[in-house]
Amino acid sequence: MPAFSLITPGDYVLHPSEDWGLGQVQSVDNNRVTCNFEHRGKVTINTEVIELIPAKLPNSDD
Fold it and tell me: Mean pLDDT score of the chain, rounded to an integer?
């Protein structure tokens, strides 16, 4: 199962090779995931090329 299908709007992610900080998923359209990253801003990622890393907020109990 492709990674993008596990990511939903509102989730938090990290980019695997860039130091953009924590990103919040804004939208998911097939393999295109749009995120708002702390240190980069709004970016659309092709999850067939880059596999985002799921993350939790530092104070999250989940």
Answer: 89
